C-alpha cells in the first residue's frame, strides 16, 4: 500500500528540483523536539530544507502558547507571510504546535489568517503527510482539515536531528498537573509514557551513532511510567539507560518538585552518566502563592530535596523557573521568593512575568496587583540572581570541570560548551577540532553567565 508520504513525493516529482520547506519552531524544548519530527516527515516526503522564506514551497510555524508574548510574536510573523502567499499562490503555509490546539486561535485564523493551508495540533504531527496529500491532491479547504487530539504515542515518525552530538528523546507526553496558570495540559493533553524498551532502543541507536548527550524530555519526567505495565518509574529508567554502552551523558527536563523525591536524587548520584544538575521549577517562594498555583508542595519540602541532594553530592547544581506577579501576589510574597533564591543559590533561573492564559483557572482570578509593581519586582529578581550567579561561579575557580564542546563563541578563537552542571564554559584559544569532544578544563575565571577554562593537561 502506498503511504501518504510516498503519495506526496509523487505529486512533487513533476518539479525540476526538490521542493523546499522551512520549519520555524517557537517555545520550549518539547516543541523543538516536535519540530525535528515535522522536519523528519518532510524529509521522508522528498523535501529539501531552506532558511529563506522567499524560496520555500512550504512554510510551517510550530508555535508556543505558554505566554501571551509568544502568541503575539507568532501572529506578527504570520502576518508577514500574507504577501508571500499573494505572490506565490502555490505556497503552502502550515500552522501547528501548542497554539493550534486552542479553539480561540482556530477562530482567529479562520477570520483573519485565511491563507493558512494546514492546521494540526501537537498530538497530530504524524498526520502531516495525510493532511499535505489531501491539501495538494484534493484541495481540502484549509481549516476544515484540522486533526483533533490523537493521543496514542506514535513510534513510527522519523526524526531529523538538529545536532549530530546532542539528541532530545521524549520519554512522556502531556501533563496531568493543571498548575492554575498553565495552558499546557489543555493543549498537550493527558500524560502518556513511552515504553522503556522503545526509549532504550532509541538511546542505544543514538549512542551507537556517536551522540554524546541525550536529553530526556517530558512536561514532568518524574511521573514517567504512570499507566505502563510493569514496575517502571523515572529513577528506574535512568538506571536502565545508564547501563547502555557508549560515550554519552544523560540530562533530563523538566522535573516537578512534588514528584522529585529522594529516589530521583539517589538515581542521579548513582548513575555516572547522569549529569549532576537538576532543573527544578519552584515558581514561587511563597506557600500561599504555591497553593494558589496548585503546585502540590511547600517551600520547606522543596528545600528538603535541595538539601538532601547537596548532602550526598556537595556543590550539586540547581536551576529553576520563577513566575513573578501571579494574580494578587504581594510584595511580601515576592520577598519570600527572593529569600529562596538566597537559600538555594541557583546556578541559573528562568524567570517570567505572569501571563494570563484564557481557559486556565488563574485566568478567572481578579488581579489587584499593579503591573508596574510586577515589572519592578521582576527587575529586582534578575538583579538578585546576577549577584548570586557571580558569587556562585567563583566556586569553580581552580577546579577541573568536564564539558562537551558544542560550539564556537562569538569572540574569535573561543570554543565553548556546557559543563555537567549546565554552566557555560569558554576556552580561549581552543581549537575548533575540539567541537563534539568531551574534555576536561581547569577553570581560571568566573563571570556572570560563563566560566573561562583552559585545557587540563
Ligand atoms: N505565565 C508566565 N509564565 C508561565 N509559565 C508557564 N505558564 C506561564 C504563565 N501563564 C512558565 C513556568 C514554567 C515555564 C516553562 O513557563 O515557569 O515552568
Ligand atoms: Fe504546566 Fe504545571 Fe504541567 Fe509544568 S507541571 S506543564 S507548569 S501544568
SS element count, helices: 13
Taking all Cα atoms into account, the compactness measure Rg is 23 Å
Shape: globular
Number of strands: 18
Question: Which hetero compounds are present in the coordinates?
Answer: 5'-deoxyadenosine, iron/sulfur cluster
Mean pLDDT: 92
Question: Structural class, judged by helices and strands?
Answer: alpha/beta
Could you describe the largest sheet, including whether it forms a barrel? 5 strands, parallel
CA-CA gap between termini: 59 Å
Strand order across the biggest sheet?
A: 2-1-3-4-5
Helix content: 25-40%
Oligomer: single chain
The low-pLDDT segments are none
Strand percent estimate: 15-25%
Describe this structure in words.
There is one protein chain. With 457 residues, the chain is α/β, with parallel strands linked by helices. It is 35% helix and 20% strand. The strands form five sheets. It has a five-stranded parallel β-sheet with strand order 2-1-3-4-5, sandwiched between helices. A five-stranded mixed β-barrel has the order 14-15-16-18-17. Strands 6-9-10 form a three-stranded parallel β-sheet, with helices on both faces. It is globular. The mean pLDDT is 92. The chain binds 5'-deoxyadenosine and iron/sulfur cluster. 5'-deoxyadenosine binds next to strand 12.
